[in-house]
Specification:
alpha/beta; 8 helices; about 50% helix
């Protein structure tokens, strides 16, 4: 069952952009985390206006970057913002059952996972992440270009999902890529 979007994808992207502009001008998070909102979301559920798939990097905090409070973002974090079945299932849930109108794959500059894919051949479970990134970046060695290519691959993998395609067609869901610039805090929508 697909729930109707809570706003258009364009409205959600504009809300994210204006939240990032507030973030660039502030020293602390202005998102609403009040007791009243906690009670409201407990009683009425969550209705996030955006699904954010981003890296686990501790410098990348979507709720802060977009000046968001409780219930506004459905955040999925994994090193290198790579996509597998678990992330796809989470995205399908948020888009199909919570009515989120936009999926943002939020990469970032100076990503350690992308750097590892470019400059090393890790072992262990990290290899699952770097192998995915290597599929995205090929022979690219420029850090920024590689980060963008990695975002674009994740966007393509999400859009390949039949459930996501159905929600895009029926409800206007959009899947977009973006880059968070760690050096200055700005978000660039690709």
């Amino acid at each position: 069952m697909i729930h109707h979007m809570i706003m258009t994808a364009d409205e959600a992207i504009e809300k994210l952009k204006s939240g990032n502009m507030r973030y660039l001008l502030m020293n602390s998070n202005s998102g609403n985390v009040s007791a009243a909102l906690r009670k409201f979301t407990y009683e009425h559920g969550q209705h996030p206006h955006a699904i954010i798939v981003t890296c686990s990097d501790s410098r990348v905090i979507p709720e802060t970057i977009f000046s968001a409070g409780l219930g506004e973002l459905f955040v999925i974090r994994v090193a290198g913002n790579v996509i597998d079945d678990h992330q796809l299932g989470s995205i399908e849930y948020a888009a199909g059952h919570l009515g989120s109108p936009v999926v943002v794959v939020l990469g970032h500059t100076h990503c350690g996972a992308v750097d590892a894919a470019i400059n090393s051949d890790p072992e262990g479970y990290i290899k699952f992440i770097t192998d995915e990134i290597k599929l995205a970046i090929g022979d690219e060695t420029d850090d920024y270009k590689a980060c963008c290519l990695n975002v674009k691959r994740s966007v393509a993998l999400i859009e390949h999902s039949l459930d996501i395609q159905q929600i895009e067609e029926q409800e206007g869901l959009r899947v977009v890529g973006a880059m968070y610039h760690i050096e200055d805090g700005s978000v660039e929508f690709l």
